[in-house]
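Progress note, sequence design subtask.
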């Protein structure tokens, strides 16, 4: 395709015909360009999509263009949707559709199952699997500006045309290694509606809970709700309203007056007497006057026995060795919290102790902790030693 061949879909008839063509594919490849540096809600600037023998760019900023035919495809359970690093694209479509696209395939997740690295970039994935180089000179384009050059459009369209080749290579490798089940859970998790819910009432769930005291929790929740509502109403990033550190200090100190609020180090100078200061103080005081009503129920952390000294470190060595041997990225198998829980004897509820993760790593982790497996070093290399076989010998 030459540069001059790239036309942007701006008319309803063109969009309808494009979506009809896409609907003939079992799998479609999708990417978006958006702008959100200074806003709460992302501004959708372009939608790129490709299918079997068809690709195109939709301009969602055109007045009157109804995206319903494309959104219908995104919600069609019989058509797979392939993204790279899907999270932000999914958030955009969730807001447009009221539900995330499904089913999906995230090439970044698949890359971990194939040992290609943790959070691999699209450029490296295309280079490694498609043998193509991406011209990144248009990477920082302001996609809200019009008109877009053919060079910029070519860069944008490449985000889905190269994705077809990447997906084909990945599918072959997943078939060869029988690892489709390894990525199913993570892809399904990305399609969970709760991940993209922006209801202000749930905003406190994103905050780190530092103490179980009810007055602290009541203020934390109510101020988080206040900030989320204001950020949405003003269409500004949360941190531009009030940073998380400030909410934590407010919850710790619980100031009731503008003077007390002004003394907090993390609250911007003058904020207490600004046009939003009164709303913040109302949120604080309401929480403190209605602690029992406002404070959320927070599950107390379970008491766990301290893990034996060095046990989690040994598990980390074992995980790396197993993943190196099987050519899979360790983070897909277990994280640091999983290893700590397994080391302390509380690992049964972790994903590591079921399914393919148990077969790959969990069983050996149990053997290591119970002395049936040992880790040795031979000429600088890690070796695993089956102690039960040694005792029989």
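Output:
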């Amino acid at each position: 395709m030459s540069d001059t061949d790239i036309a942007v879909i701006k008319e309803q008839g063109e969009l309808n015909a494009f979506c009809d063509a896409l609907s003939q594919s079992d799998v479609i490849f999708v990417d978006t360009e958006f702008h959100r540096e200074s806003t709460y809600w992302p501004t959708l600037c372009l939608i790129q999509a490709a299918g079997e023998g068809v690709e195109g760019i939709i301009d969602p900023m055109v007045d009157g263009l109804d995206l319903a035919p494309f959104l219908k495809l995104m919600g069609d359970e019989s058509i797979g949707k392939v993204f790279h690093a899907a999270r932000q694209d999914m958030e955009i479509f969730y807001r447009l559709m009221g539900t995330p696209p499904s089913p999906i395939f995230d090439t970044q997740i698949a890359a971990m199952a194939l040992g290609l690295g943790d959070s691999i970039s699209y450029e490296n994935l295309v280079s490694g699997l498609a043998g193509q180089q991406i011209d990144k000179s248009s990477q920082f384009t302001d996609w809200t500006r019009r008109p877009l050059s053919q060079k910029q459009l070519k860069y944008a369209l490449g985000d889905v045309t190269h994705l077809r080749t990447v997906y084909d290579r990945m599918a072959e490798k997943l078939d060869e290694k029988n690892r489709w089940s390894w990525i199913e859970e993570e892809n399904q998790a990305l399609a969970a509606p709760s991940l993209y819910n922006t209801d202000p009432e749930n905003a406190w769930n994103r905050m780190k809970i530092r103490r179980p005291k009810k007055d602290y929790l009541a203020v934390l929740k109510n101020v988080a709700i206040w900030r989320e509502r204001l950020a949405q109403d003003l269409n500004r990033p949360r941190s531009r309203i009030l940073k998380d550190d400030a909410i934590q200090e407010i919850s710790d100190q619980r100031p009731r007056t503008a003077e007390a609020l002004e003394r907090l180090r993390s609250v911007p100078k003058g904020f207490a007497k600004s046009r939003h200061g009164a709303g913040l103080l109302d949120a604080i005081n309401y929480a403190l006057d209605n602690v029992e009503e406002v404070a959320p129920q927070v599950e107390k952390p379970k008491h766990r026995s301290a893990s034996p000294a060095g046990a989690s470190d040994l598990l980390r060595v074992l995980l790396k060795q197993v993943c190196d041997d099987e050519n899979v990225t360790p983070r897909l198998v277990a994280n640091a919290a999983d290893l700590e829980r397994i080391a302390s004897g509380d690992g049964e509820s972790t994903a590591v102790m079921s399914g393919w993760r148990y077969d790959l790593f969990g069983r050996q982790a149990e053997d290591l902790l119970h002395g049936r497996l040992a880790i040795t070093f031979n000429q600088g290399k890690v070796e695993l030693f089956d102690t039960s076989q040694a005792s029989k010998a």
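The first strand starts at residue 8 and ends at 9. Work on this subtask will continue into the next period as scheduled.
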